[in-house]
Amino acid sequence: MSATSGVVLLSAAEQRRLQRDNAQLQHSKNVLKRDMKSMKEEHEAFVRRLIRIGREEHHAVMVQAESDVARITDEHEELVEQLRAELREERMARERQQRENERLRATEERMKKELNQLKSSKATRRSGTAAS
Q1: b/e string for 15-46 if b means 16 or more Cβ within 10 A?
Q2: Mapping DSSP to helix (H, G, I), strand (E, B) and coil, where does residue 1 land?
Q3: pLDDT per residue as tens digits for the range 106-128
Q4: Are residues 18 and 25 in contact, defined by beta-carbon separation less than 8 angstroms?
Q5: What is the pTM of this model?
Q6: What does the angle CA 22 – CA 27 – CA 28 come to, to the nearest 5 degrees?
């Protein structure tokens, strides 16, 4: 290599070596570009796969949640219907008891009247026999 007026002159061997180095660098650059493109495609495919899996998992969770909600709703509806039936039975039993109580009160009143009538007629007989 010789320098004349700021210009560097290279020997033919140095020029070949520089060209070879330049070619190797260009080849390495092309390999890196290809590898980066491949890695980018792999990354994008991985992200798409993750998104798909996430959606599938979300869907599975939502289906299970909907199933659970439907089951719980059915259970609650059955319980509400059972409680309504029990309430109707209790109302009917209470009404029967009220009717029985009213019947017993009426019987009691009738028996009191009869007792009073018996007492009254007994008293009348006593006063009638005492007067004779």
Answers
A1: eeeeeeeeeeeeeeeeeeeeeeeeeeeeeeee
A2: coil
A3: 999 999 999 999 988 888 887 77
A4: no
A5: 0.48
A6: 95
